[in-house]
């Protein structure tokens, strides 16, 4: 069956879907995107993703292309038309089509909206097989990383560097302070040498991850202590455990960084528990507070 995309008000065979070459997303990366996990026909943390979409759009002075109820309908319809119940849904909003000029179009043009969906493998059940390795790299991205911009060239270069070294992610750090920021496409966490779960506080330096936010809410509900506090590369290297969160990584254990083991090089007990807690969150099981 052909994949169906939504492009500016039309549902089209994805092989035939097109955007104008003067779309500002293509010309300048002038747009915002979101990726939502679809599990058993249900969008996971949908409100968090739509809230973040609206916030990012406000930050770059771009209106929503349609109302939130209408957008929800489009997302559901794209999933339905593609018969996808386990997958990843991608939505992108750009400033639309206008003559190429760095400043915003002098005359208002409608924002462009594209939505696609793809199937993914079943939700992971084996936490040990889900684990991976990372490398570290200086963070060379722009200053407003809290905005989910489609302009992702530094992220792409970092992910490619990780792949070439047999890793799944690049952990980025401030080259001046040595403070860890986040992954190229994930939020990064450690269980520090004292056993404290830590991830960087929210500011303009990292993306406010929806999976990050959902996991923090689950930790609070379960009475599990954590800290939103900076940590250095040196603290990371002394950590007992480490893991990533994102809409595609869920809770992903990291057992090696730059070729060296994290802790004993195995999935630790804290990350093992968090993996189970988040799996219940995805599957709609509210027993996490127990």
Can you offer a commentary on this structure?
The chain is α+β, with helices and mostly antiparallel strands and 290 residues long. The chain has helices at 24-28, 46-59, 68-82, 127-130, 153-164, 210-222, 233-237, 269-282, and strands at 4-7, 10-13, 31-39, 42-43, 87-94, 112-119, 132-138, 169-173, 180-183, 187-191, 197-199, 227-228, 241-246, 250-257, 260-261. It contains 8 helices and 15 strands. Strands 7, 8, 9, 10, 11, 12, 13, 14 and 15 form a 9-stranded mixed β-sheet that branches. A 6-stranded antiparallel β-sheet has the order 2-1-6-5-3-4. A hairpin with a 6-residue loop joins strand 8 and strand 9. The relative contact order is 0.14. The mean pLDDT is 96. It catalyses: L-leucine + 2-oxoglutarate = 4-methyl-2-oxopentanoate + L-glutamate; L-valine + 2-oxoglutarate = 3-methyl-2-oxobutanoate + L-glutamate; L-isoleucine + 2-oxoglutarate = (S)-3-methyl-2-oxopentanoate + L-glutamate. Pfam families: Aminotran_4 (PF01063).
Sequence-ordered SSE layout with sheet pairings:
Elements lengths: L3 E4 L2 E4 L10 H5 L2 E9 L2 E2 L2 H14 L8 H15 L4 E8 L17 E8 L7 H4 L1 E7 L14 H12 L4 E5 L6 E4 L3 E5 L5 E3 L10 H13 L4 E2 L4 H5 L3 E6 L3 E8 L2 E2 L7 H14 L8
Parallel strand pairs: 7-8, 7-14, 11-12
Antiparallel strand pairs: 1-2, 1-6, 3-4, 3-5, 5-6, 8-9, 10-11, 10-13, 13-14, 14-15
GO molecular function: branched-chain-amino-acid transaminase activity
Protein name: Probable branched-chain-amino-acid aminotransferase
EC number: 2.6.1.42
